[in-house]
Amino acid sequence: MTAEVAISNIYGAAMAADSAITLGHGKVYNSSDKLFALSRYYPVGIMIYHNAEILGIGWETVIKHYRNELKDKSFSTLSAYAKDFIKFLSRFSYFSEGQMRDYLKSVCFSVFEKILDWFLDDLHKLYDDKGKINKRQIDEVFAQTLRDIKNKMKGVSDEKQLKLDLDYIDAQMESINRILKVIFEDYPISKKLVQEIVNILKLNFQKCIWIDIYTGIVICGYGEGEIFPTTYAFKVSGKIGNSLIYFEEDITKIDPNETTSYIGTYAQSEVVHTFIKGIDPEFGRGINDKMTYTLSAISEHLTEKYKSKVPKIIDLFREYILDSIDLHYQQPVLDIVDTLQKDDLTSMAEAMINLTALKRHVSTDSETVSGPIDVAYISKGDGFIWIKKKTNYNPALNNDLNQSYFNGRQK
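Below the sequence we write its predicted structure tokens.
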């Protein structure tokens, strides 16, 4: 895991990331690079979190390959940089056929297990107290479960991704059928219901609802036609055939007339959330759930006249909490961020990562945020500047490093 922060105002943007990486056996190492310059020549930075690789290739390799391809090309907006990076990922030739098949299989296992859980829940609700159940009844429940899942997915807006390669999924039916046999064991599924399951799988890629495998991407900086920074965040899951699976795009632009400051927290963000909003997010959800449960329980003893007012009371309470958080905690912090110059902005970004690491260190939680903190500052005039950067080499023994960094520039 990790903790990352992007803070921006009208003067520039600060990006900070820790160095912890957790491997499959639970061992934490403090040597991972998660913050990079996206362009050699222009004010754009990129951070990654969650998965350190995509389809078996490390993100550092992918990002630096893109940087070499980009050379001194620039775009008028930061969003255009992000879109170009997405297009680059969609055509990246080093994603192997085997890795794409493995990715598809992993998503199949995840989706089919969720379908099975939903199906079993429906069975228990309908037949737990009714004794024996025959095959026809089971099939009817399963068919209804698939219809419910499909209808729910259809109600979710499509993600902004490249057109889904449906032919690629259809070509993998042999593997998909084997996975179905593993998940559903001896339960015989008709061809019609298998097709419904595959349709749900395709919908899941289009809607990105049950996607557990992903890397978070944060791109921050300036386009050539922008004088204030923009932060563009999204998640990349993988690739199947000609389709890159990415989702949850979020764009925040600094604008003196609208948004004058921004604090973006990524991955393990609950400590920074508490600092900014004055309440731990999990504790806040607990209060909200308890309040809703309590008022709903009380409403059962009220007359219809007053029972109808309970939902409004719940909404008013939530609105009051949010307004109080904004007035007394969040807005005062953002007001200060409005005026911070380079030194204070980068110090704040680094301090927020340190605060998260300290919380992990003095609690029973695993220390999944730790190690050296990389910090960069991005401004329109000076570009991407390293404030703190760990190295795994001796700069004195690598005098040609800076020269080779710029060798790809086109004259």
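Residues 72 and 411 are 9 Å apart (CA to CA).
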